[in-house]
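Reply to dn_fold:

You asked what the input looked like. This is it:
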Amino acid sequence: MTEPTLLIVTGPPAAGKTTLARRLAIDLSLPLFSKDAIKESLFDTLGTGDRAWSMKLGVASIELLFHTLAWQLGAGNSVIAETAFIPEYDNARFLDLQRMHPCSLMQIYVTASPAILAKRFKDRANSGDRHSGHVDTRLDENEYLVSLRAGKYAKLDLNTSIIQMDTTEAGMVDYSRLLEVARGCLATPKLT
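and this is what came back:
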């Protein structure tokens, strides 16, 4: 028997996490739970507002994300969780989740060079493709760079394997290797 696996796709905003997580979800036939997808549903239901409102719904979204992960893992289901998890808050939450619902953890840390991340962040905010509730267009690019330098979106410290995917040059991403490792993690037998 295998225990469920929680694949955690994390890294700074605009690194390419959502794109990668969606592809993994399809290729691995796993459910994907994303903070932004939950948050955008809340925007559509409760309305959009200013930055403070967006942040408030962000807190609610992360709570809903962790509750959903607990339900899925408790039912023995492997899942993918995706967002820019913040180690200061989320390390303990993942470890608590793993204690309550024994599972294997695999962290996929998606990143790129700071200059590329800042450009993507700005381009995404100005593209009009992102849900307007995020109010990204009101965020300062320098504020984003400061948060990167401060390590706000660093790797999670979960005592598990970490696969780093550098998306600075999209053509250099070895997706097939990542998929192979993820499949291996999903097939790991449960220790009894």
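Residues 107 and 163 are 6 Å apart (CA to CA).
Hope that clears it up.
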